[in-house]
C-alpha cells in the first residue's frame, strides 16, 4: 500500500503520544467563524472542516456537534447527515480539484491513531502518483496549495451545491 508522507503531522502526533492534551477542536471550532476555523459546511447535526495538518490539499473532516466517541452513540439523524456531508464533500472536491480517488476513514481510539476522541471521519483526496518519488525517496512532499486557497474553492463549491 502506498502511504502519504506528511512530516508536518509528526509534532502533533508526538505531543499526543506524550500525553499532551488539547482542547477538543470538534467541540470548540463550531463556536468560531467559518473562515477563521476553516469550517466548510454546517448541517443541523454535523459540520465539515479542513484538516490543518493535511495529508493532501482538500483533506477534510466531518464530525457531529455532540462530543461522542463511538459510532453506536450517534443518533440516526447524525449518522445520516454525516454520510450526506461526505457525499457533498466528494462532489465539491470533484468539481474543484478533480482528484483521481478518495480515502474515507475513521480512527476509533488512540491505538487506531485517533488524535481526538470526538468521533470524526476523514476524507482525503488522492491523485495518481501522489505518494511519489519525492515523498518516498526524498522524504519530502510538496503541498501545492495553501489552506486558504483550498478553503475558498471548496466553500464556494459547497455553497453552490445546497
Ligand atoms: Zn468534542
Describe it for me?
A hairpin with a 3-residue loop joins strand 1 and strand 2. The mean pLDDT is 86. The chain is an alpha+beta fold and 162 residues long. It has a 5-stranded antiparallel beta sheet with strand order 1-2-3-5-4. The termini are far apart. The chain is built from 5 helices and 5 strands, in the order H-H-E-E-E-H-E-E-H-H. Helix 3 packs across helix 5. It has one domain: HIT-like (HIT family, subunit A, 2-Layer Sandwich). The longest helix has 21 residues. Bound molecules: zinc ion (ZN). The site of zinc ion has 5 residues, from helix 2.
C-alpha geometry: globular
Can you count the beta strands?
Answer: 5
- What structural class results from the helix and strand content? alpha+beta
- Beta-strand content estimate: 15-25%
Topology:
Layout: H1 10-17, H2 25-28, E1 39-42, E2 46-50, E3 60-64, H3 76-96, E4 101-105, E5 121-126, H4 133-136, H5 147-161
Antiparallel strand pairs: 1-2, 2-3, 3-5, 4-5
The structure holds zinc ion (ZN).
Record keyword descriptors for this entry.
162 residues; HIT family, subunit A; 5 helices; 5 strands; binds zinc ion
Briefly summarize what is shown.
The protein is an alpha+beta fold and 162 residues long. The protein has helices at 10-17, 25-28, 76-96, 133-136, 147-161; strands spanning 39-42, 46-50, 60-64, 101-105, 121-126. It has a 5-stranded antiparallel sheet.
